[in-house]
Specification:
Blueprint lengths: L4 H8 L1 H8 L6 H22 L3
């Protein structure tokens, strides 16, 4: 995984993460799901873009 939920909170702030999540107190589970989705998207892109 490229980022963890705490990385997002540290980088963008809890208030911004709450706004994006549509929740006044985003749970770690929601942020973790977003991190996993983003990692899968990045992995699929990289697997198509990089030929070894």
């Amino acid at each position: 995984m490229y980022a963890a939920p705490q990385d997002l909170i540290t980088r963008f702030g809890e208030r911004e993460m709450a706004q994006i999540a549509g929740d006044t107190a985003p749970t770690n589970a929601k942020l973790l799901a977003a991190c996993l989705d983003a990692a899968q998207f990045a992995d699929s892109y990289l697997s198509r873009a990089v030929v070894l």
